[in-house]
Amino acid sequence: MPEKPSIESSPSSGPEKKDTVVSLARYSEMGFIIPAAVLLGFFLGKLADYWLHTKWLYLVGLLFGAVVGFWQMIRMAMGASKDEDEDGR
Asked: How far apart (Å, rounded) are the C-alpha atoms in residues 31 and 67?
């Protein structure tokens, strides 16, 4: 009769695997921040153009979204490096 698989966790599914998944999620989130912020700024600028009957506010929204996206990405990268420094001690 074949043995039943053990329910106990294997050594590879310990905290190292969880840290890898957390890091992967954190870095993939960084990849979506800039495009999302730029698109949000663009569409908010287009909405402001529609409401105010102008033709240039989408550029302001686009630039503002890019700045906010880069700023948020830098904040996340600094937080990630701080977390890695604390874990490495």
From this structure: 15
